[in-house]
Amino acid sequence: MKVFAFTVAAAMGTTALLTGALAPKAEALVAQAQSITASEKRQGAEVHPKLLEEFGGAYQVAQTSYVVQVGKGIAVQSGLGNARDDFTVTLLNSPVNNAFAIPGGYVYVTRQLLALMNDEAELAGVLGHEVGHVAARHSEKRQKAAQRNSIIGLLGQIGAAVLLGDGAAGQLGQQVFGTGTQLLTLKYSRKQEEEADDLGVRYLSSAGYDPRALSSMLGSLAAQQAIDARAQGGNARSVPEWASTHPDPARRVTRAATVASRFSGTQRNRDVFLSRLDGLLYGDDPKQGMVQGREFLHPELGLKFSVPQGYAMQNGTSAVSISGQSAQAQFTMGQFSGDLTRYVDQAFRAVGGEQQLNYGQIQRTTVNGLPAAYATARVAANRQTLDVTIFAYSFGNNRAYHFVAITPAGQSNLFTPMYQSVKRLSGAEASAIRPRRLRVVTVQRGDTVQSMAARMAYDDLRAERFVALNGLASGATLTPGQKVKIVSY
């Protein structure tokens, strides 16, 4: 069941498109590249295990060594000291389109984002962008800015850049959704994003890759984001891929292409890349539970629930995050001794931290045969009033799970259908859950986008998913012998 997200993109003003030249600061950064310091290495080494835990752990498969090889190769282009040895590149077992970097030369990319890429140059472009953040010391600068501005309400684990503000609401956001590691992966400024893009393009060119690869990758990501938003409901505030650390990719596609026009390089290595991608796990790992439409199913825990229409879910290693226009929640677990009342009280204490939340009387009930308990506390801060609800369930054998929900005051019933949907997963339902995998297939004579899309393991938006997955333009045609990706069971 935890999630960060990374959107390689930033809101752009008109000045960003003037000439396609590198941002002036980026030019200076190339000349001033310095070795990674011992202090930065210690900081990264301390946080690295925590990030692995939050993002599903390192994904140790056949593709891992290839990703590390490409990442270290692009890191050398940064001019940072002994870059190949100083950088640690990790492929994460996460179903979120995500990539980020932290001080000390630690660079991460998820298997889901890897699956969206269509050649080695795109992989190098994304990793080069992240190396650029390391070279420019952007993470340290964002931490200092965050500390100056008391940004403690970032809901890092649900991947939403929503600020609850200072005081009680800010503390609430910190306790519910955590701030332990996201100070190292905060949202970058537009200027910093442009610098990292510019450095990434330069690294691509100096390594012999096609410098347009970063732009094409951003285009695929923007298309996938649009599909995710449609699939989750028109009014859902879907967790924007890459959004907690980088702003919207669609606005940076043109700029990245314009900057790339100043550089040379042709290498894409599409065939090699696609051959390495075949068989990659796609979407949720059943061992961590599965999001299927508006349902969450966990075969190992033996439970399921559904979210209301218009709400988005993101599944992580220790929590499922739910977000919509006006409310958000997490589904997680805690220590349980058999007493649900005590369990709910402990959950409120964990949420409130030093601030004691007055939740009134804990109510007992039964939901689909499961003993349950719940209570709601009202919190006032920053001219707003919020309701915080804990709704817990006993699954016996010292196992309990609960929702932590934040809604506008008086609207805690927004999640009532979700609370009432929790139930045990039957054996038949559990055995029917199958993981999706990425398959690389060869286009045959007579194959079309529609016929290939029909093979996608989805019930909705098949053609749109196929086009985005393969980086195809609208109205594209397929050629016999062409290699394409599909998602199958």
Overview of this protein structure:
- Keywords: Hydrolase, Metal-binding, Metalloprotease, Protease, Signal, Zinc.
- It holds the Pfam family LysM.
- This is Peptidase M48 Ste24p.
- InterPro entries: LysM, LysM_dom_sf, Mito/Outer_Membr_Metalloprot, Peptidase_M48.
- Residues 439-486 form the LysM domain.
- It is globular and about 70 Å long.
- The chain folds into three domains: 14-151 and 186-281, no CATH class; 286-431, Protein Transport Mog1p, Chain A; 436-488, LysM domain (Membrane-bound Lytic Murein Transglycosylase D, Chain A), CATH 3.10.350.10.
- Strand 13 and strand 14 form a beta hairpin.
- Helices cover 36% and strands 20% of the residues.
- It has helices spanning 24-31, 38-54, 64-76, 83-86, 111-116, 120-135, 138-149, 167-177, 190-206, 213-232, 253-260, 270-277, 340-352, 416-421, 427-431, 449-453, 462-469; strands at 88-92, 99-102, 106-110, 281-282, 290-292, 295-298, 303-306, 312-315, 320-323, 328-333, 363-367, 370-381, 384-396, 399-408, 423-424, 436-442, 483-488.
- With 489 residues, it is of the alpha+beta class.
- It contains 17 helices and 17 strands.
- The strands form four sheets. A seven-stranded antiparallel beta sheet has the order 8-9-10-14-13-12-11.
- Helix 1 (24-31) crosses helix 9, helix 10 packs antiparallel against helix 11 (253-260) and helix 10 packs antiparallel against helix 17 (462-469).
- Residues 2-21, 146-186 and 234-245 have low confidence and may be disordered.
